Amino acid sequence: MQRFVYGAVLALLISPQVLSAQTQGDEDDLAEVISLDPNPIARLTGRLAYNSDYGVVVGMGFATDRLLGEDQTLKFNIETQEDGTRVNLLYNNDAIFGESPAFGLNVMRSETSAGAIYDFDSTVTRIEPRLTWEVSSALKASAYASYSVSDISGVPVASSALIVGDEGEETTSAIGASLEYRFPIEPGGTIRAARLRFGAEIGSTTPDNDFLRVTASGQAIHVFNDGNVVLRSQVRLGALSSQTGTSSIGNRYRLGQGSIRGFEFGGFGPRDLEVAGTPALGGNYYGIAKFDVQFPNAFGERAERLTPGLFLDLGSLWGLDDVAGGIAGADPVDDASYLRSSVGVSLRIQTGLGAIQMYVAHPIASQDYDSTQTFGLELNHSF
Predict the structure, then answer these.
(1) Which of 61, 106, 319, 363 sits a CA distance of 20 to 30 A from 12?
(2) Using CA atoms, how far apart are residues 213 and 192, in angstroms rounded to an integer?
């Protein structure tokens, strides 16, 4: 009996299964009738993924939208991969101030060990409360404050002076706001989705860096030829401007394979060529444009799970406040905005475990010191 009660309580908390059990018949013929609860109090979540940049990613989590009361959600997850771990706690309350604004709180910690591109260990702990207003069905606004503590350690003695100088702990305090606008979609038109997003943040990082960060992005999906041709386009821009002091490698932009296919994570942008391993330094500015043409019905109804495509990616990462590189800080780093671009073919395969996405890319504009990547593969399965 104790085992039955324990099992029932556990199932009620973590699965959508046991809501009630009753017995029917006489003592010689007992049958338990289990009813399903479509909205459990809480549930366990999991994630198994593979990415060409990060390798195998394994995650577990917990989510509930009933345990704390109506209009409140709580999510916790932890993910681990070959060179790091990330823990995230997210709380949302849509009715704490009435109909608007909604309140959210995000607490995050990540630990990353040295890899092929960045030869140091790093940890980041961040807390970020946020308010969000649904101004209209098309416009959403948010404001937030954040406080983070980051630490860079294990920097080789012979590394770039621009990285050695950033070793140690730093704290960052910031406030920011964002606007997101979703364009109305006309029935029967070629545009199926379109949105713009703008963000601005001002903050201060110890010991002496006051900064302004501005971001902008746009995405659109067009459908042609009765849905047989889909064009996906996106543009992303970012700028980090130091008002006092200089930006650190922990605060600068570091872009990966998902930005421009055909380049590894940290594979393009300013690098210190006078140091062994030519470490990536990140950049204060970036601009990325991506265009995908997909053909959902290219292989007919028998192969409707296969979606081939073509793509063009282009962009750049550039700009440092301090270019005194080399081991001793006497060798200037070239931080100019060189264009990178690539073309390629892609294939999306929809499976029972989730979508498998792969591509073959050919960089057509790059620098000799860039780290390129011809083939990319991504699998993401959540449960």
Answers:
(1) 106
(2) 31
* Token code pair at residue 205: 């990082």
Instruction: Report how far apart, in Å, the C-alpha atoms of 172 and of each of 177, 313, 322, 353 are.
Output: 16, 33, 20, 40
Take residue 367 and report the two structure tokens written for it. 């620098």
**Two structure tokens written together for 166:** 């950033």
**Residue 383 in tokens:** 């449960």
134-166 confidence digits (pLDDT tens): 999 999 999 999 999 999 999 988 899 999 999
Spatial separation of the C-alpha atoms in residues 309 and 348, rounded to whole Å: 8
pLDDT of residue 127: 98
Place of tokens 């995650």: 59
DSSP 212-255: EEEEEEEEEEEEEGGGTEEEEEEEEEEEEEEEES---TTTSB--
Contacts 24+ apart (CB under 8 A), 106-109: 106/130
Cα angle vertex 331, ends 325, 335, to 5°? 60
DSSP string, 310-359: EEEEEEEEE--S--EESSSS-EE-------EEEEEEEEEEEETTEEEEEE
The first and second tokens of residue 60, run together, are 């577990």
Contacts of residue 226, Cβ cutoff 8 Å, sequence gap at least 6 = none
Q: What is the pTM of this model?
A: 0.85
Cα angle, residue 296 at apex, residues 295 and 298 outer, rounded to 5°: 65
Alpha carbon distance 78, 298 (integer Å)? 39
**Torsion from C-alpha of 17, 18, 19, 23, nearest 10 degrees:** 130
Domain extents in the chain? 1-40, 43-382
CATH of domain 43-382: 2.40.160.50
> Which residues touch 102 (CB under 8 Å, ≥6 apart)?
92, 93, 94, 95, 96, 131, 132, 133, 134
